[in-house]
Amino acid sequence: MSATDPPLDPRGVRFAAALSTVVLAVVLLTGSGWLLAAQAVVFALAAFAGPRFAPYPLLFRTLVAPRLSPPTEREDAAPVRFSQLVGFVFAVVGTVGYLTGLSVLGVVATAFALVAAFLNAAFGFCLGCEMYALLHRFRTHRNQQGATA
Questions:
Q1: Chain mean position to CA 131
Q2: Does the pLDDT value for residue 84 go beyond 70?
Q3: Residues with Cβ < 8 Å from 22, sequence gap 6 or more?
Q4: Distance in angstroms (rounded) separating the CA atoms of residues 31 and 146
Q5: From CA 144, how far away is CA 140, in angstroms rounded?
Q6: Which among 17, 50, 112, 134 is most buried, taking Cβ atoms within 10 Å?
Q7: Are 125 and 119 in contact (CB under 8 A)?
């Protein structure tokens, strides 16, 4: 993941989470592994190429952001990219479940991704970002421990 991503408008992040929430809810209602595969591609683009290349942030930047006042705050892209990576993993697991007949696996993986997307969209609480922060603190603490030994 690149450290060169520009800071993000948090409203765009929540917009993307809202669209993901809708798609994941439709997946749960229909059991469509192919729709979940498409969402996995969206997550992959945001995680691996960066948010500026993913479709949902692009929609926000072109259709929504011009109608809003400039953002009063920005957020680091690295935790958002990590959260998209987590979403990608759940979407891939769910897709495999749906497309191989392991529907319970598909439902559970999709439900986990849906909960995370909904929390971000509705409340601005990013589970993946929190996981990123915990891992970063753990790594920093571990490196400090190693330096003092």
A1: 12
A2: yes
A3: none
A4: 48
A5: 6
A6: 17
A7: yes
pLDDT level of residue 1 (50, 70, 90 thresholds): very low
Instruction: Tell me how far apart the alpha carbons of residues 20 and 24 are, in angstroms, rounded to a whole number.
Output: 6
Look-up of token digits 């997946």: 27
Largest distance between two CA atoms of the chain: 55
Query: Model's pTM, two decimal places?
Result: 0.90
Q: With H, G, I as helix, E, B as strand and everything else as coil, classify residue 106.
A: helix
> CB neighbours of 118 closer than 8 A, spacing ≥ 6?
17, 21
| Token couple for 136 | 């970063």
- Residues contacting 84, CB < 8 A, separation 6+: 43, 44, 46, 47, 51, 54, 128
The alpha-carbon radius of gyration of the chain (Å, integer) is 16
Q: Round the average pLDDT of the chain to a whole number and report it.
A: 94
Residues 121 and 21: their CA atoms lie apart, in Å, by: 8
C-alpha dihedral sign at 92, 98, 103, 108: positive
Reading the block at residue 107, the tokens are 């439902």
- Position 18: which residue type? A
